[in-house]
Amino acid sequence: MDTIEITSEETASEKPGAEAPVTETAPSEKPAGLPEKFESVDELVKSYQELEKKLGTTSPEETPKTEKESLEIGEQAANTAGLDMDALVQEYQTDGQLSDTTYEKFEKVGITKEYVDTYIAGQEALQQRQSSEIKSTVGGDEAYSKLVTWASDNLNAAEQEAYNNAVNSGDMETVKLAVSGLQARYVSNTGSEPNLLDGKTSTPASPGYDSWAQVTAAMADPRYEKDSAYRNEVQNKLKGSNL
Fold first, then answer.
1. Mind listing the pLDDT tens digit for each residue in 223-243?
2. Cα within 13 Å of Cα(189), Cβ side
3. Residue 135 CA from chain centroid, whole number
4. Residues 6+ apart with CB under 8 A from 6
5. Do 3 and 149 meet the contact criterion of CB atoms below 8 Å apart?
6. 44, 99, 156, 205: most buried, per Cβ within 10 A?
7. What residues contact residue 224 under an 8 Å CB cut-off, 6+ apart?
8. Res. 187 pLDDT band, cuts 50 70 90
9. What is the pLDDT of residue 204?
């Protein structure tokens, strides 16, 4: 989102010997840092591959859960390689790619470059989809760009920082709420919506909040995580707020 400014080692062949006693095969050593539910890196990779297939066939209701699982598997892979996910994200955002050294660390624990690149491509596609979904709530790319341009000229530094933090939080509902709040500010100050798609008008807003403390309290309500109707009510009420 725009911000304001915004495979496992093969076992050695058994040596031939006379009347070699039959013994149980010793279990392979589990890589350090591998999550408890996985016995090998192969299991971790297989889990992600299965999740990729699931992501391509999920219903809208299932999507948030599978997206969270995808991120968790990526973090588990990074931890297994002794890497920090936040540092990896920063490296990729700064350089546009991961370094050979980073790939080598993954390779050492059996996570191939192909797997890493597939995960990155999947996350980029996911982010693009989320970005489109969020921008569509205010009318699309052009309308969102107008909001951001207006915000950069009219919000103070603290407000811009708060908005950027929300947009970069990684939580879809938090981002949507922040964008809805920005749209409410825009409408309150300009008296018009920023180019709604297909000539659609905005949903009439409920009476607004009087303070950000009230907004925070509403979001802290357990219903905000579980009840989509309540979530929509909070978002509509925020649109009618003059904060």
1. 777 777 778 787 777 777 776
2. 14
3. 16
4. 148, 151, 152, 160, 163, 164, 167
5. no
6. 44
7. 173, 218, 230, 231, 234
8. confident
9. 44
